Amino acid sequence: MRSSRRDLFFATCIALFSCSVLLSFVGASTTTNAAAADSEHVVTADPRIEKLAQWIRDSNITLNGIDLIRTETELSKKIYYNGVHGMVATRNLDRGEIVLRVPQHLVLTTDAAFADPDLGPILQNYTLRVNGLGTDTRAPLAIFLLWIKNNPDSAAGRRWGPYVESLPKSSEMHSPLFWTRQERTELQGTFVLDRTLADLEGITSEYISIFTNTLFKDHPAIFNVEKYPLADYVWAWVTQWSRAVDYEEEELIPVEPTPEDDDDDEDDDDDEDDQEYLLNRVWKRYLIPIVDQFNHPLVDQALALKGQSAVDVIRLPYSALIKKIDNDFVLLINNSYSQGDEVFRPYVPKSEVVPNIDLLRKFGFIDPSNSVQVTVMKLGLDKGDQDYMIKETWANAFDVPLLPYPYCNYYVGTRGVPQTVASLLRIVNYAEMTDDHRNNPGSLPDPHNLITQKNEQAMWDNLKLAIDLRLRKFKHTEQDDLALLDDANLPIRKQLAVEMRSEERTALNNAQTQLQIKKVKIGATVDGEGSGTTKFSNPPLSPSVRSINRGRDTAVAISGEKQ
Questions:
Q1: Residue 430 phi/psi, 5° resolution?
Q2: What is the DSSP annotation of 396-429?
Q3: pLDDT digits over 445-459, tens only?
Q4: Which helix (H) or strand (E) holds 182?
């Protein structure tokens, strides 16, 4: 079923491209209604993309051997969620080719927001006084998006208006940050729900600080709640969060001369420029038009490009790379593509497989071929523990993270319990603290290794209890979810919620299975147990439930968030 769907998709693309004249270096062609080879699959026009295509041509953005399309049929609505935009090869492409070139002046950045002739002076006035308005935060870029959207006749509106207008609306995006309260109740028991509510609280607090308490009061003629409601700020914040890329830049910072340097300069009049600089590397956030129109490769797709199969994979072959060349941002492909193939770009700057809990929160889709199925546990030091401060020092000394839930990464799942969680729980459950330890925390043992048999038993008992309590928060059973996902007409967001809670519940149950094996293997003595690294055998694990729209246990081609 998976291959037939892909063949259908690619056949459509080829039929579309055969109807138009395509060159190697062109702007995006305007997509029009056209019958594909298969009468059930039709490529339809999208007015926003029509405008975007014209803007691409007018802006000297170069598309080399690729084109932007949108498919929208009953099949694609089920799988791709309301149709999907994507980049497809218009000819055979070789690995290492530059397929996209975007001039730097068309890239939306925090620097561009502060330099804008209309918005910049307002932002600069609050940089040091309003929470969230620092030059290193996401807020200015989100505000800039709203400014462009609300002021089409401004300098920024004239430059970026068609691009911002092409971005998906809140109703077209499926991150739980956009769901209604009723829709989010379907996520009860999940980490995704807890983190979503925490993120919404943070975004709301930021909005109140920047807009309600500052801009609305100081600039009522420009900023008001009718033009800049909270819902729009959530849209702008999530848009830049999910679509922008972080890129490391090099900056030259002038070094202030010392008095001795000044004296030396008086004796060396021949040097025209004695200014010294330090090379500084900084990460900056860029929203690069058109780069965000590529779709993220699902696990099976990324491996298929390399002729591999998706079997328990934790790392992926990298499919594309963004670089800065001659003041342009370019996209290089790391795979070969045939004409009609979809060209992918990973949404994260690492080759690790991203868990579905993060894909859903940030991008609004789930990868059914993803074998990294995990959830995050609420674990940490007890501030009521008399040795809390000592244990905190101990954890810091061995680089054991102590971030609060739900911002931590204490994962458990189909692979059991990672080293980070085991190390933390050895510290949490350590009951052999002595006065020597309290006076000299450096004498405490390495928590990355097994400490004592008693501590190890307490650690696993503690985690088992935490998992049991978490499982009780789910109000639906696996059978309930399977019955729901047999409905091909299940609303998109409910389908995502049911699949996500099934996956997190499965991750917890599988972690429990692995825990039982670990406890049996602990043994009676510590002698000879040089390492406390968690290693498990591989018992049969329960699969996550998938919608009938996905072919139940088969992967699908395209993610649903990038519209």
A1: -75, 120
A2: HHTT---PPTTSS--EEETTB--HHHHHHHHHHT
A3: 999 999 999 999 999
A4: helix 181-184
